[in-house]
Amino acid sequence: MLRSIHVKNLALIDEEEILLEDGLNILTGETGAGKSIIIGSVSAALGTGSLKDLVREGAGDAMVELIFETESEQVQNLLEQMELPVMDGCVIITRSWRNGRSISRINGETVTVAKVREAAASLIDIHGQHEHQSLLYPKYHLELVDSFADRELEKRKESCRANYQEWKEAGRKLEEALTDEKDRARQIDFLSFEIREIDEADLREGEDEELEARYRRLSNARKILETAAQAEELTGSDNGALMQISKASGILSRISDLDEELRDMSTMLVQMEDLCSDFNRTVNSFLDSFRYDERELDEITERLDLINRLKTKYGKSISDILHYRDVREEKLAQLTDYDAFVEKLRKRVRESEAKLRADCARMTELRRASAKELARRIRESLEELNFLDVRFEITFDTLDTMTENGADAVCFGISTNPGMSVRPLQNVASGGELSRIMLGIKSVMARKDAIETLIFDEIDTGISGRTAQKVSEKMAQLSSDRQVIAITHLAQIASMADHHYLIEKRVSEGETRTHVRKLDDAEIVEELARILGGAKITDTVRKNAEEMKRLAEVQKERRGE
Q: I need a labelling partner for 96 at 20 to 30 A (CA). Which of 43, 277, 387, 488 fits?
């Protein structure tokens, strides 16, 4: 459940916090009071809307924070998978803006907008003013059928995607092979040349590193010998370090028995003398054994030049070159035994196509079963929304070619009047009808998924009278087992509220600001009267509002029985 919406410095809002409850939460207010800001803020926090466009002019920073309470294991598992803190059933989603940059956080951890969307998909579903227009696109119809289906379809879709990629890749390679047939002889000659050039080089892993080390040694031979000889002279000559340390050790040893610290210093000098002597022997041995052969340097230089030329052509390292050679040899074998290679590719295409076709066929079966039950439930839901003689069908067509999502084209068809044939939804439904149809679909899908919070932004577009009453009853019914938040202009819907909030503009010190507050019983009646009566609220309008609220309470009590 969405427990809190905290908004700061967005549009006409300085800072507001809306504390929401279980059941049906209704938000009303005059046109232009700022109702769209609330929904826009929630959308921005969830990563589906722009926060920057809402920031109040002149504000240095802005923020919207949503606090959810949930017992959903799916949400908890998702947070763990994302390596985000799990806070005992609490999920806090924050999006803040400062200095032209926005940052999203979940439970205090900075995350990408994509992660926010992923988490939000399991927490809340927002139906905006224009979302019902998605019903005009058959692609959305297929998504609904798939969402309603069971887990087997999702597994089959995963298999279908994998087999589709295999089928396309096999087809691409076959087409490439058939195209290459024309210049097969030229390719064979070129591949043979590349392989021979690499083989003749007789490369060995790590050889280049060894050669480079030897090259550095030999190309700096003079500098190495001069420096080592200088070090030997400074340590081993008559006036060198070894002789001086030896003298100091002899002098200090004469008095070392007089004091413990003197004994320690004498021991240190003895150790230094031994170390210096070892170094002197080592440097002498190095100078005696060091050999410089100009011919060897030339051979190493020539070998490194060859390896570097091959690297330029075939890879950045010897390992890359050898791998390139193996790949080219495999290609050469394919071209040499071309007929067998092409037949192998054709077999791969046939096998992957057969698997893909089986996936598509099974997906069609599962979708048809899902669509049959979905159509029945949507039809029942529409009847509850005052579509009295409605017929609702989901029809299937087969695509010209298989895709990674199967081979089905799905279309929702409807007839809302007796004697009228069922026609595609996008051809017959008006704006108000689309809004009701979407509500009916949401009602069905809400029982299928585990989302605990639904938001409806002006679901009442284009409806009135008895239809509005039916819509209000449907929303009250929906809120019996989940939280529903709705912005409305209709008194019939507002009267069904379990909790009613007023969004209003106030002018203070020459500035207009939007505020949100929860209404008590008396204020609810006044707000219903405002919606019913417009600018002038008479006693009759107020009594109508009281009666409407009373009847709504009776209706809700019957719902709970």
A: 488
Residue 279, classified by CB atoms within 10 Å of its CB into exposed (0-12), middle (13-18) or buried (19+), is middle
The residues that bridge with 512 in the sheet, in sequence order, are 507
Q: Which residue has the tokens 């230094």?
A: 272
Distance of CA 53 to the CA centre of its chain: 23
> Distance between terminal CA atoms of the chain?
24
Query: What φ, ψ does residue 322 adopt, rounded to 5°?
Result: -65, -35
> What is the rounded average pLDDT of the residues 488-500?
92
The tens digit of pLDDT for each residue in 69-106 reads 988 888 888 888 988 888 888 999 999 998 888 999 99
* DSSP for residue 220: T
**For residue 465, which phi and psi values (nearest 5 degrees)?**
60, -135
Question: 391-403 and 124-127: which strand pairing?
Answer: unpaired
Rounded CA-CA distance 440/408 in Å is 24
SS (H, E, C) 481-501: CCEEEEECCCHHHHCCCCEEE
User: Given a cut of 90, is residue 310 above it in pLDDT?
Assistant: yes
HEC letters along 423-486: EEHHHHCCHHHHHHHHHHHHHHHHHHCCCCEEEEECCCCCCCHHHHHHHHHHHHHHCCCCEEEE
CA geometry: angle 277, 280, 285, nearest 5 deg = 130
Question: From the CB of residue 82, how many other CB atoms can be counted at a distance below 10 Å?
Answer: 15
Q: Is the dihedral of CA 474, 116, 78, 161 positive or negative?
A: positive
Mean pLDDT lowest for which of 176-180, 343-347, 493-497? 176-180
Tokens of 37: 């800001």
The tokens of 2 are what? 């969405």
Angle at CA of residue 433, ends 524 and 138, nearest 5°: 130
Spatial CA neighbour of 546 closest among 561, 517, 524, 515: 524
Q: What is the pLDDT of residue 394?
A: 95
Whether 363 shows a pLDDT value over 70: the answer reads: yes
Tokens found for residue 148? 């309603």
Spacing of C-alpha 368 from chain mean position? 31
Q: Using H for helix, E for strand and C for coil, what is the string for 325-389?
A: HHHHHHHHHHHHCHHHHHHHHHHHHHHHHHHHHHHHHHHHHHHHHHHHHHHHHHHHHHHHCCCCC
DSSP helix/strand/coil, 61: strand
Rounded Cα gap, residues 539 and 525, in angstroms:
12
